[in-house]
């Protein structure tokens, strides 16, 4: 298989060089394909126009991390609050936290006293549309490519009753997972397929996700009128929605998990696990920024994601593949698209990580560079 792919790649290179008569024109076409787009959604501010570095304004508004309670709880070994105070991290998203305990209340109160927002970034569709309704209402769930209703992931966004249930349960999320920055995240089920029923088959995964998100935000706003909700561009929803428009308050969260983590995002030809090239990723980002406002758009990255580098095996921790030059180049690329909000997984960087590899100075490098970044 590999040999066939290599042969095909060689033929592709050959074809390009044989059919290109004017290399300058070809290069221009290539650059045009991946340059940032100029069209912005109605009512969207241009982040560059509102930015005033002379007044001391910071380019990056959000400098976040996402990890589990076990990563942050052993503070004698690694104290994320101290790191945040020192380096400018201003948002924590912590999963598997001990809800309703004094320990959690005390921790979040300390975060807030130190200007650190608390939010909850999680896959939640399986909770919003409980799978155990399948027995009575298979029509709530997605149809697979063979025409069978299955409840393995997500649901049927064309089913009005399913949407009602999701809207209703979103109110519970709004109450139980109240964020301090009014940002909410109810991502689709991780790596789940979408609905292929006759009504949904022409809706892309991103259009289907947005259909769910447009009712989730209605539920959230019943309990918090200032709620905003992420549209996660990730896995099968990387490409922009084309048929469904976002309700007010939906913001873009671009999370290229399957990118090549060892080449900069500006390396157009690089491609990761899903086969998309970085050029295609940046085209998708630009397309998404035609649909969602630029000023609230956010990137979720994996530069510090020990869980990813350890292949999600916590018993065999691998050191984060931190590359300062790659990181800085990526930040400049994202900033060139108008991105002013960045967060990053630091999952598995906890006490055991420190014991094995020492203090993770890469977290300081990440936050300090974003904190001090001045956009030219
Ligand atoms: Zn459907």
Largest sheet: 9 strands, parallel
Helix content: 25-40%
Oligomer: single chain
Q: Please tell me the CATH architecture of the domain at 41-120 and 177-182 and 227-372 by its name.
A: Alpha-Beta Barrel
- Protein structure class: alpha/beta
Count all strands and give the number. 11
**What Rg do the Cα atoms give?**
22 Å
Q: What fold name stands as the CATH topology of the domain at 41-120 and 177-182 and 227-372?
A: TIM Barrel
Proportion of β residues? 5-15%
Supply the number of helical segments: 14
Characterise the protein shown here.
It is a single chain. The protein has 376 residues and is α/β, with parallel strands linked by helices. It has a domain at 41-120 and 177-182 and 227-372: TIM Barrel (Alpha-Beta Barrel), CATH 3.20.20. It has 14 helices and 11 strands. It has helices spanning 2-19, 23-34, 47-50, 69-73, 80-87, 102-113, 125-128, 160-176, 205-223, 278-291, 306-309, 324-336, 351-357, 361-372; strands at residues 62-68, 91-95, 117-119, 121-123, 142-143, 149-150, 183-187, 228-233, 250-254, 298-301, 341-345. The strands form 2 sheets. It has a 9-stranded parallel sheet with strand order 3-2-1-11-10-9-8-7-4. The chain has a two-stranded antiparallel sheet with strand order 5-6. α6 (102-113) links the parallel β2 (91-95) and β3. α5 (80-87) packs parallel to α14 (361-372), α8 (160-176) crosses α9 and α12 (324-336) runs parallel beside α14. It starts with a helix and ends with a helix. The protein binds zinc ion. Zinc ion (ZN) binds next to loops.
